[in-house]
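Section 3.1: Structural characterization of target chains.
Under the original work plan, the team committed to producing a structural model for every single-chain target entering the pipeline before any wet-lab resources were allocated. The record below documents one such target. The sequence was received from the expression subgroup and is listed exactly as submitted; it comprises 254 residues.
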Amino acid sequence: MQQSPAAVGEPPLLEMRGIGKAFPGVRALDNVDLTLYHGEVLVLLGEHGAGKSTLIKMLGGAHAPDSGSISIEGRPILLSSPAAANAAGIGVIFQEFNLIPGLTAWENIFLGREGRLGFARKSNERRRARELFEQIGVDIPVDAPCSALSVAQQQIVEIAKALSQEVRRIVMDEPSAALTPNEVDRLFNIIRDLKTKGIGVIYISHRLDEVFQIGDRVTVLRDGKRVGDLNVGEITRQRMIEMMVGREIEDEFP
């Protein structure tokens, strides 16, 4: 595994400190810390209800923390909206893709940014979409409607959309859930390529084997609290499960 950038004094790509968030009757997050470095995959683990969804919605600008702070490369920032998150270089790819089925791949990539792009010609956007797909290493027809694309292809459109906004921090929520093994391999190759470009990825998954295939570090949440942050080489599958459920277990399924 790569040496942590923290060891050479680089500020983290993203840092969350003392994050707290409560909803009526529920304390979703309680004093949670999270750090993401350049060119690493941080796997975020936790059972349903552990606080993962609240945390990533916060990074996407949908929720504001009640307490704590968020910093980008050492600079405090307020993620007050999805637009503010994008402007801060954060891209969130949810399980439910934010794509318009009737629009083409390239139209979805640039949707909602007509004002920023001015009167840029459609041909330029189509060309840029092709460049993004080439950068990722895939061949997707830019003029195909998203409704005609496979789940894996739609996911790549979402990744291309994030890269088109020059994000340096990408959050992927259960990205392999609906993919075949071959498609998962392709996704992992894309993630490894993103790492070489210094992009940090927060990867959320319930498939524990994926931690060892793609992860550099693991942060575990339980009942809204961070209960562990370890390098992948320092953790076992059994230990991950015990941290998630809060007790020793002999049978993984219960």
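Residues 40 and 209 are 17 Å apart (CA to CA).
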